[in-house]
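User: Design a sequence. Structure:
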């Protein structure tokens, strides 16, 4: 898998001149492969938002380099516009940035700035609206929509730019369970249908476990661990030391697995956990462990 984005030992400190200020990102090196679905997890203030803002050039590292398609994005002569069209960033609570009179115009805002034909802009708006299920209210004011609908429209505005890399900062924050699921499903659909690279920031393991393949845990501005979901969840105790918890069902399965090695502990919801336990019981023809 080729790397689409690469961070080489990057560091960033807000207000570096002030005595006692600590780096928000502290010597991070990462390689993001084309087509990956990655969750970036960490406690509040661990540096997740600061880190991802380096990936589309909103922040410039004070140390280290960021490369997109192998090119240093801060090298002299590099066209940052190409990066911003290639790497779409959905901010936390993006619905606060809706401002146009209609949903259509809001979704069209990004592609309109890309020097595309009218026809291509129209196609992209319809496509992105279809993705998020906003097709039926394109002529409505975004302010008439519910919170979850507004969030999806705001995401559509970034999808309409058809970024190869889609980064979302806490896309499920503040949504009810149905809204959360809808948001993650549409991100997954974008990932699968376009083959896009997706990076989702979250402070909740539970929310992302079902969707992400790789989890990068950030603590105090550094990469604490980086691996597949089961690899990272095996380190439950260390994660809890840094203020993160794995889903309750997964921790119960990991405990059961100690006496029952064939149990599949890579389950993150009750239904699949029940299935895993039932499978072992069937196999053993007896009560579990
Ligand atoms: N604009 C800013 N000015 C000064 N300090 C900041 C600024 N933004 C973030 N910080 C500090 O940088 C550190 C990392 O913050 P960051 O927002 O990247 O963390 P986060 O992991 O995204 O947190 P959260 O889960 O709360 O969104 C924190 O100590 C934070 O207080
Ligand atoms: Mg943040």
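Assistant: Done.
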């Amino acid at each position: 898998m080729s790397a689409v984005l690469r961070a080489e030992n990057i560091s960033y400190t807000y207000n570096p001149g002030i005595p006692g200020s600590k780096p928000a990102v502290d010597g991070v090196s990462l390689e993001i492969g084309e087509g990956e679905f990655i969750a970036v997890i960490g406690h509040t203030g661990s540096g997740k938002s600061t880190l991802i803002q380096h990936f589309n050039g909103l922040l410039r590292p004070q140390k280290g380099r960021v490369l997109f398609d192998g090119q240093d994005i801060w090298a002299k002569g590099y066209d940052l516009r190409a990066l911003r069209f290639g790497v779409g960033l959905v901010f936390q609570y993006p619905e606060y940035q809706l401002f146009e009179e209609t949903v259509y115009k809001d979704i069209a805002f990004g592609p309109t700035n890309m020097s595309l034909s009218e026809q291509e802009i129209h196609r992209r708006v319809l496509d992105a609206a279809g993705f998020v299920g906003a097709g039926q209210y394109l002529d409505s004011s975004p302010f008439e929509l519910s919170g979850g609908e507004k969030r999806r429209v705001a995401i559509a505005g970034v999808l309409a730019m058809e970024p190869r890399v889609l980064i979302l900062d806490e896309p499920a924050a503040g949504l009810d369970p149905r809204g959360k699921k809808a948001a993650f499903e549409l991100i997954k659909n974008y990932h699968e249908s376009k083959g896009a690279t997706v990076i989702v920031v979250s402070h909740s393991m539970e929310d992302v476990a079902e969707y992400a393949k790789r989890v990068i845990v950030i603590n105090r501005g550094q990469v604490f661990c980086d691996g597949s979901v089961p690899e990272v969840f095996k380190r439950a105790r260390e994660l809890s030391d840094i203020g993160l918890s794995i889903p309750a069902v997964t921790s119960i399965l990991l405990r059961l697995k100690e006496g029952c090695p064939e149990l599949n502990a890579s389950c993150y919801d009750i239904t699949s956990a029940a299935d895993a336990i039932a499978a072992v019981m069937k196999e053993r023809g007896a009560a579990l462990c």
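DSSP finds eleven helices and ten strands in the chain. Residues 247-289 form one domain.
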